[in-house]
Amino acid sequence: MGWTHCIIWFLWFSVSECQQLSTTEPEMHGQIQSPQYPRPYPPHLEKQWDLWVPRGYQIQLSLTHLDIKVSAGCSQDSLTFFYDEKVLGRFCGQGNSTDHHGDETILSPGNKLTLVFQTSDSTPEHQQHTGFSATYKAIDIDECSKTDPGLDSGPLCSQICINTAGSYRCSCHSGYKLHLDQRTCLLSCGGCVFDKHEGHLSSPGYPKPSPPFLSCKYIISVEPRFIVTLNFRDNFHIDNKDNQHGSSCQGHFLQVTIPGRLAMKFCGTKSPGLIVTNSSTVRLDYHTEEEGLSNGWSLQYSTHEVKCPHPGSVTKGSITPDLNEYFSGDSIHVTCDQEYKLMMGQQEIKTFSAMCQSDGQWQLPLPTCIAVCGQPTNHINVYQRIFGGQNAPDNTIPWQVLLS
After folding, report:
1. Rounded to whole angstroms, how far apart are CA atoms 111 and 122?
2. Nearest Cα residue to 53 out of 167, 140, 168
3. Residue 35 carries which DSSP code?
4. What mean pLDDT, rounded, does the chain reach?
5. In this predicted model, what pLDDT tens digit does every residue of 56-78 receive, in sequence order?
6. Contact 190, 217 (CB under 8 A)
7. Using CA atoms, how far apart are residues 182 and 187, in angstroms rounded to an integer?
8. Rounded distance, CA 258 to CA 226, Å?
9. In this predicted structure, what is the pLDDT of residue 18?
């Protein structure tokens, strides 16, 4: 009977247990208590709890009761908190002892927290300490109050950081846009349509160096009857990486795109000068990267109406309106004098109108006016006859006789 009693106590004293509260979905809150709480805890015990919550949260644990045998440095009985093997605190003691921390809150740096409860081999009859009781909950991490360790302790967002449940997002001030890295704010440029008949465009900050990571789009679009002309200033500088084939215009460039023509890409220090687009629409794309330095560009743009050549005149007819100049969108009409009819080639037409097109050409060529013969009023009663007529031999003169 005595041996049986000893074996039972040996097994009881040798308990070492690890408990993870959840192996599937993380618990957002819960309660932890020492073994046999609120009765005295057993001796020779080592029990571990592994708590975890979703990423973007941290664990806040509050000790609602703490009664652990006191010892120097809590070397015998203790409750220890770990985060990634880093000791956050080791507690023991009772209500009024200096090592008692029952009213303190433990806050894990991240989304996990480990508790280890250890007890010594005290005689069970003399052990009356009840252990501990604690509650925990997941609280949202304020990422915006932290710095990014991968960015030399720089901020997570370059301008505005918005804390969200379990995460954060970056935003930008007016006039800036968020870069693809979702952290960096870049100066916003272009993106709108310029529809005035004249104006000025320049790179951001010109003539100071352009910011990196620019991707600016400028569109000039006026009425189809106008043509846009670009006039670049001489102070033109876009970083240029030369290679064996000449200028590459890869990282930094200004591209001018005109409908119906190949896009033109510019870099270096030579200004494009005057560009007559012969179009009512033109697009400019300005691009910079992190490496390289560009001081940018500036231009004035102007427009003028598309003009068609004077249509000329129509014999035995008139053109209305009769103007000195005809511009795109203007129309003309042709009418014939009395006893004349409109002809387009070999076909009679009732009316005619043509428009000056945006390419400076008339929609149709002018028609002609020819006389209307009508029905004869006096019939001819004379009868006539032709005699003779045959194929003439070579080197002879053919003949015919008309008798009336």
Report:
1. 35
2. 140
3. T
4. 83
5. 898 999 888 999 988 888 888 99
6. yes
7. 14
8. 14
9. 45
CA distances from 130 to 38, 41, 346, 357 (A): 5, 6, 117, 98
- If you compute the radius of gyration of the chain from its CA atoms, what whole number of angstroms results? 48
Measure the CA–CA gap between 112 and 120, rounded to whole angstroms: 27
- Separation of alpha carbons 391 and 404, rounded Å: 24
**d(C-alpha 68, C-alpha 132), whole Å:** 7
> Is 0.70 surpassed by the pTM of this model?
no
Residue with tokens 């302790």: 153
The C-alpha atoms of residue 382 and residue 379 are separated, in whole angstroms, by 9
Beta-carbon contacts of 58 under 8 Å, excluding residues fewer than 6 positions away, are: 107, 108, 109, 110, 111, 138, 139, 141
CA distance 76 to 120: 5
User: What integer pLDDT is reported at residue 375 of this predicted model?
Assistant: 54
Q: Is the pLDDT of residue 26 over 80?
A: no
E strands, 188-324, where? 190-194, 199-202, 215-221, 226-232, 242-243, 246-247, 253-257, 264-266, 274-276, 281-287, 298-305, 307-308, 317-320
Interatomic CA distance for residues 226 and 356, integer angstroms:
12
- Within the chain, what is the greatest distance between any pair of CA atoms? 168
What pairing do the DSSP bridges indicate for beta strands 298-305 and 264-266? Answer: unpaired
Report whether pLDDT(16) > 90: no
DSSP 315-326: TTEEEES--S-E
Q: What are phi and psi of 5, to 5 degrees?
A: -60, -40
- Look up residue 311 and give its amino acid: P
Residue 282 CB burial class (10 angstroms; 0-12, 13-18, ≥19): buried
Residues 73 and 214: their CA atoms lie apart, in Å, by 60
Location of structure tokens 């209500």: 95
Q: In whole angstroms, what is the distance from residue 16 CA to residue 314 CA? A: 113
Q: Which of 75, 70, 114, 72 is nearest to 92 (CA)?
A: 70
Count of C-beta atoms within a 10 Å radius of residue 336: 21
User: Looking at residues 303-310, what average pLDDT do you find?
Assistant: 94
More confident residue, 9 or 305: 305
Q: Rounded to whole angstroms, how far apart are CA atoms 99 and 92? A: 6
